[in-house]
From TrEMBL:
Organism expressing this protein natively: Streptosporangium brasiliense
Pfam families: Acetyltransf_1, Acetyltransf_18
Name of the protein: Ribosomal protein S18 acetylase RimI-like enzyme
Highest taxon of the lineage: Bacteria
Domain N-acetyltransferase: start-end pairs: 16-166
Length: 289
């Protein structure tokens, strides 16, 4: 249902103004992202539509005034992302209203998101707390030493082992997500040990170049080995969103051609995050987790 602009008071979003979006709204989501200065990451949005729930408010002039997305992982964890408000509808409470709507629908013990400096205060007002950082690195990745041992390219038979390790680290099962990643990623690499898979990393194509994510590893040396193994497949500047401080891996990234370009705060609502976050170096995306 389209609600006229004057019918949506400041900081109040009637529930009837919000609707579940479908693939027919995909192009409007990309246009809204570009309106806010974000790249039109069609692969990331495709994952949100395929695995999550995307909600929006229609713009009476056409297109979308605002969006938000949820990705549920059982009753354990829900991630929130894709919160966008068109510039012409800014400062009217649409973002806050959609976040309230999303938080109420999350139905999970923990809700996770990454927040820019601009959004942190609003999320804090809604009950989110800062639990960490996510730092973006970008540049031309050079291969180097493999302190964590050699890596190899994964094949479909490795899917169960990758899902099992991710479930242990992430704290919730994501079989459907990894089934899609094994088909859509340019490459997934593994480091193995006597007890099985010690780490894995994916490389997929973003709108502005290659993106690394997820990256799960038992330590920084294993993470560096995975990145070094991916380097030959990277044909231009790569982007990596590094979760946590990770001083050893930060130093390795800088030695191998990447530089810090920005960052966000990791924020959580409800219980502390499940799993073993010390081994989750990089999310799939900032909206999927």
């Amino acid at each position: 249902m389209t609600v006229p602009r004057e019918a949506v008071p400041r900081e109040v979003v009637p529930r009837e103004a919000v609707r579940r979006l479908g693939y027919e709204d995909f192009a409007d989501c990309l246009r809204l992202a570009q309106d806010r200065g974000w790249p039109a990451e069609y692969r990331a949005w495709d994952l949100l539509f395929a695995l999550g729930e995307v909600y929006g408010i229609d713009d009476p002039a056409g297109g979308l005034a605002a969006t938000v997305a949820l990705a549920r992982y059982g009753g354990t964890l829900t991630t929130v992302g894709g919160l966008l408000v068109a510039r012409r509808h800014g400062r009217r409470g649409l973002g806050r209203g959609l976040m309230r709507y999303a938080t109420e629908r999350a139905e999970a013990a923990s809700i996770w998101l990454t927040a820019t400096e601009y959004g942190r205060r609003m999320y804090a007002d809604l009950g989110f707390r800062v639990t960490g950082t996510c730092t973006r690195y970008a540049g031309r990745l050079r291969s180097g030493g493999r302190p964590g041992g050699p890596s190899r390219e994964a094949d479909p038979s490795d899917l169960p082992a990758v899902v099992a390790l991710d479930t242990e680290v992430f704290g919730a099962g994501r079989t459907e997500l990894f089934t899609r990643l094994f088909s859509a990623a340019e490459q997934i690499r593994l480091v193995e040990g006597p007890a099985g898979v010690r780490g894995f990393a994916g490389l997929w194509r973003g709108v502005d170049g290659p993106v690394v994510g997820p990256l799960v590893a038992e330590d920084s040396g294993t993470a560096a080995a995975l990145l070094s193994g991916l380097a030959p497949a990277v044909d231009g500047p790569v982007r990596i969103d590094l979760d946590g401080h990770r001083p050893e891996l930060r130093a390795w990234l800088e030695e191998h051609g990447l530089r810090e370009t920005g960052g966000t705060a990791v924020m959580v609502h409800g219980d502390d995050l499940p799993g073993d976050r010390t081994r989750l170096f990089t999310p799939v995306t900032g909206a999927i987790g």
